[in-house]
Specification:
It is a single chain. The protein is α+β, with helices and mostly antiparallel strands. It has 7 helices and 8 strands. Strands 7-6-1-3-2-8 form a 6-stranded mixed sheet. Strands 4-5 form a two-stranded antiparallel sheet.
């Protein structure tokens, strides 16, 4: 048990260090964006524990809602205990509903890659290990697919990261909301040790790097 705790803390330290390193770099604006449709749009992202991803996007202006949930597997296995086993095909995901007149899909991509998670970690994120913590963009249409793949190519060519980006870009088949106690977890539990160590630094990075994109 002690060794597991030490490994978890070490993983958290490495994740924090990676976030600090990424925050010191200048991320390019995405060259490809999704056209505004005249109404709200939906984006689904996965990159580690959904508490942090949800918490980051809840702070972004133009985001009307961020819902923690599961994508990539079947409805019958979209339950935390089953997803945590790592063999359901699901990734802990967040569905972001946003107003494209205030925040664009491309700007959400920039936030996702720069402050929300480390896209070079395969099948884990910080102290959390398993395919359910993999980095994924679930695209809803071809425009989102082009924007996501285009930005990954941009970041790769700019050598923003020292390791290869492993983010998957796959079609969104379905999104299933997680259990009620997982919703708004960061906002409701800011003093929880996991949140303090792993997720509040992401919020700080968001406010420092993109103050104009943050809710007042």
């Amino acid at each position: 048990m002690l060794n597991r705790k030490i490994l978890s803390l070490f993983g958290s330290f490495l994740a924090a260090a990676a976030m600090v390193s990424a925050a010191q770099k200048v991320f390019p604006d995405p060259a490809i964006d999704v056209p505004a449709s005249g109404g709200d749009q939906i984006a689904v992202f996965a990159g580690g524990c959904f508490w942090g991803i949800e918490g980051v996007f809840e702070k972004v202006k133009g985001v009307k809602s961020a819902v923690a949930g599961y994508s990539g597997g079947e409805k019958s296995t979209a339950h935390y205990e089953m997803v945590s086993e790592g063999n359901t095909g699901h990734a802990e995901s967040v569905q972001v509903t946003f107003d494209p007149s205030q925040i664009t899909y491309a700007q959400l991509l920039k936030i996702f890659f720069s402050v929300a998670h480390d896209p070079t970690e395969k099948d884990h994120q910080g102290p959390d290990w398993g395919t359910q913590y993999r980095s994924v963009i679930f695209y809803a249409n071809d425009d989102q697919k082009k924007a996501a793949e285009g930005y990954i190519n941009q970041l790769t060519e700019a050598r923003i990261f020292s390791h290869r980006i492993v983010t998957q870009v796959v079609p969104l088949k379905a999104f299933y909301a997680a259990e009620a106690h997982h919703q708004h977890y960061l906002e409701l539990n800011p003093n929880q040790p996991y949140i303090l160590i792993n997720d509040l630094p992401k919020i700080a990075a968001l406010k420092k790097q993109y103050p104009d994109l943050c809710k007042r």
